[in-house]
Specification:
This is Superinfection immunity protein. This protein is mostly helical. The protein folds into two domains: 55 residues, no CATH class; 32 residues. The longest helix is centred in the first third of the chain and has 17 residues. 8% of the residues are buried. The model has no long low-confidence stretch (mean pLDDT 83).
Length: 108
């Protein structure tokens, strides 16, 4: 009785592992080609590996590309304030301050 239960559990576990590429393909991408390779070629191990790799590979049409929103450009006032702070700290000389200020104002 216990052995029969273990056979059932083992069989279910085997089927789950065998059809894992199909399950992943169902969730992620092309189900039918992956399922057919898995069903007919999965027993060869190489077919199973091909199916699992294909199921896990990114589909170029639906690949998720992270969108990096552009950081908002600091306002003219913010840039001038930062420049003034650098001058106050002694990091910029008067001539460097004027040059940078001119660049900021010309870019605006």
């Amino acid at each position: 009785m216990v052995y029969q239960f273990l056979y059932w559990i083992g069989g279910i576990l085997f089927l789950f592992i065998y059809f894992l590429p199909t399950i992943v393909g169902l969730i992620r991408r092309n189900l039918m080609p992956i399922a057919l390779i898995n069903l007919f070629m999965g027993w060869t191990i190489i077919g199973w590996v091909i199916a699992i790799v294909w199921a896990n590979s990114a589909d170029p049409k639906t690949a998720i590309v992270p969108q990096n929103p552009e950081t908002p450009k600091p306002s003219l006032t913010d840039e001038l304030e930062k420049l003034a702070q650098l001058k106050e700290r002694g990091i910029l000389t008067d001539s460097e301050f004027e040059e940078q200020k001119r660049k900021i104002l010309n870019a605006a």
